[in-house]
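Before surveying the methods themselves, let us examine one representative protein, written as a sequence plus integers encoding its fold.
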Amino acid sequence: MLHLRAVCPADDASAVLSVLRAHPGAAHLVHLPGAAVHPAGDVIEAMVAREAADEILAALAGLGIDHCGGLSLEQIDVVLSDQADEAEARAPGEAADAVVWENLLAKTGEESRLNGTFLAFLVIACLLAAVGVITDSPVTIVGAMVVGPEFGPLAGVAVGLVRKRFDLVRRAALALAVGFPLAILVTALGAWLGNAAGLFDASAIAGEDHQVDFVYEVGPWSLIVAVLAGAAGMLSMTSAKSAALVGVFISVTTVPAAGYVAVAAILGQWERMGQSAAQLAINLVGIVAAAAAVLVLRRRAAGDANRPLSPG
């Protein structure tokens, strides 16, 4: 179940209450007249089934509540209520299959912002990947995959394309366009310092039969893995199965490829640098394409292709 709170002018309270009373997926309706201070008005709360949330939010946004007041939605971990159970049973569909589009837009919008935290995580992840490449350590490579924050902007690009929110596409693309070159540059500087200090030399990646060669080896499986990971990641973000995202992070070689680009450039391994860059590009494109395809299919399955969303 989700907790919905609406802040609205007193004159609009009856319309909000009517929407919630009429929907079978809403329960435990609470009306607090005059409780809102700024903007002044009423506060209305309810528990809503996840599969009903998108429809209810669209109806309330249609009343203009998101402009004259505000709407918020948050997850409730534990609900002990027969009425809530009945609301979930009456709401059409399954909770795990429901897409709360406003929540998805908010989540991807937040994770797609270019900020210091995003850059720091991406730089650290690329540095870890470089260490994994130099030491031929798959464990360190996996650690870099998990630390990397790049799936957020990639999901943002996919959501923005499908929902025609090009402001989100621009924001997410900017994060990727600035983040990866900066992370590669910092990692290259670190690799240059390590090489100059004698910590490693060209033999670290020269030759064959390294355990981490998959990072730069480009082939059909690179695209297949990227597509599957992108599909799984978007399914996870649009459903209640968020734990699956960890598996997605470990599947793709975006950050490891970026780390390999930096190390190969410093060691003069230009062919491997080019292959790693191609691996990075294939993974980025494959993830976005698969994530967008999943969103299109889920939107059509839900029958809400033309449902308007409030601008964010």
Observations:
- Confidence is low (pLDDT under 50) at residues 304-312.
